[in-house]
Amino acid sequence: MQKLESIGIVPTSEPNILDGVAEVIPQTKRKVVKREIDGQEEKVEIFETPYNLGVLRGNLKTISESRQSLPDDIMQRQKMLEETAYDSALARFKHESDVFRELDMGGNLNKRSLQAWMWDWHVQTQPRLQARIKELEEQEKASSKELAVQLSYFLKLLPAEKLVLITILELVNTLATGGYQDGVRTTRLIMTIGRAIEAEHHFQAAKKKQIPILDFKSKAELPTYSVSGYLELHKARVKARLEIEGKEDWMPPWTPEVRARVGAFVVDTLMEQATVINTITVDDKEYEEDHPAFFNTYRYERGFKIGVIKANDVVIQKMSQEPPREHLHPRHLPMLVRPQPWIRHNTGGYLFSNLSVMRMKESNEQNSYLKEADSRGAMELVYAGLDVLGKTPWKINRDLFDVALEVWNKGLGYPGIPPLALEQTIPDPPTNPTDLRAKADYAVAMKRLAQERSAHHSDRCSTNYKMEIARTFLGEKFYFPHNIDFRGRAYPIPPHLNHIGDDLSRGLLMFAEGKPLGQRGIRWLKIHLSNLFGYDKAPFDDRENFATEHLSEIYDSAENPLEGRQWWLKADDPWQCLATCMELRKALESPDPEKYESCLPVHQDGTCNGLQHYAALGGD
Question: What is the pTM for the complete model shown?
Answer without folding.
Answer: 0.73
